[in-house]
Amino acid sequence: MNKNKKKNPGKELCFEVRQADELMSFLMKMFPGKSRNSVKSLLSHKQIRVNKQTVSQFNFALNVGDWVFVGEPSHRKPIVKGLQIVYEDRDIIVVDKEAGVLSIATDKEKKLTAYSTLSSYVKAEDPRNRIFVLHRLDRDTSGLMMFAKSQQVQEKMQKNWDKMVTERTYLAVVEGSLEKREDTISSYMWENKKSMKMHSSKDPDDGELAVTHFRTIKWNDSFSMLQVKLDTGKKNQIRVHMQEIGHPIVGDDKYGSKMNPIRRMGLHACELAFIHPTTGKEMYFSTPVPKKFKQLF
Asked: Which sequence spans correspond to the domains of the chain?
């Protein structure tokens, strides 16, 4: 852990300034894995405070003893049905979805979904407004997902998804302690239509390529918390790959879990970065580690 970093009772990360610096330079040091554009996006979306002041200037002067807070946008709006709006403009909506909320309708559930909730939300302003699906999260996966507000934006992003979506990072809590602290899993996946389960094979003729990178960030004898990044976005990809290496995600009985200590599945979409379909700017959003995840370590 970075020595400047301290826990904050809210949903922010908190860093103490120990040497005079400019804000951009300081943030790049605190987040060495982030691109300069991602850090700029934190500033432009008012996710940075210095002491009690929200700051957006990248060259803001920091003094020894200042505190820099990095957290959720100040304009976050709560709405019903397990969703929070993280960001909204005329083209897109980014939301933080709770575990247990469906992304879109199924044969059994058509009303209580992220899609239906957001549709009602935008139509309350103008009945002609609509939203359009860009991607999905499993019902029991929490975290960041986004929707388009026009068919043109939907088509542009889906057509160029691999180029426009620059980062999708998950946190996964799995059973046991992994022998390899970090690794890449590659396989070929397909869906059994009868069981509705995804399957994995090393034979290229069996399905489509799925590539998952993971790094262990916390562990004990019973559980491990992994940071997971995807090169591909196949259905249930992380869940299947964790089962494949013998460490299923907690609470995921569909893919081999025998334990459910947090009464939900241990998968959370924590970071999302993409090129804005209209402005061309890189957008970056993050959410904190779920409290139930922390309780296991």
From this structure: 5-70, 76-159, 165-274
